Amino acid sequence: MKKFIGLIGIMLLMVSIVSARGKVTRDVSLLPVEAQEMIKTYFPKAPVSYMKIDKNLFRTEGYDVFLSDGTELEFDAKGRWTEVESRSQSVPDSLVPMSIRKYVGRYYDDQKVKKIKHDRHGYELELVNGLELKFDNRGKFLRLDD
Fold first, then answer.
1. Which of 25, 79, 135, 142 has the highest CB neighbour number within 10 Å of its CB?
2. pLDDT tens for each residue of 60-114
3. Domain interval for residue 119
4. Cα–Cα distances in angstroms (integers) from residue 133 to residues 54, 80, 138, in the given order
């Protein structure tokens, strides 16, 4: 009986390891509607090259989307963007909250936003010159990392 239970445990472990792999596809319809709309709104001229669906066990953890212009997007399981990084141009201004745009415009007027991350703690921006700015969820400047 102990061998049988051990065998079942090993089989469950193998199933969880195999199912933890991500799926790579070009089928945008597999993205949540919110993510699809975000791509259509902010990146209408850059089609999806491919995307990776991050899975853990039997549920989706997130999505990594790679556009033809080199832009990389990350979404959570519900389709909310968590990170946008542009390799060839700046992140669309409308993705950056107004208070943060005003701050960047005031103190770093000649710099563009290359990358923006958003999580429950706030926002992190990387400018083209390599500086990283951190803001809280209300857009209040917290600190500068270089």
1. 135
2. 899 999 999 999 999 999 999 999 999 878 899 999 999 999 999 999 987 899 9
3. 90-146
4. 28, 21, 14
Domain count, the chain: 2
Return d(Cα 54, Cα 76) in angstroms, integer: 9
Q: Tell me, letter by letter, the H, E, C secondary structure of the chain.
A: CHHHHHHHHHHHHHHHHHHCCCEEECCHHHCCHHHHHHHHHHCCCCCEEEEEEEEECCEEEEEEEEECCCCEEEEECCCCEEEEECCCCCCCHHHCCHHHHHHHHHHCCCCCEEEEEEECCEEEEEECCCCEEEECCCCCEEEEEC
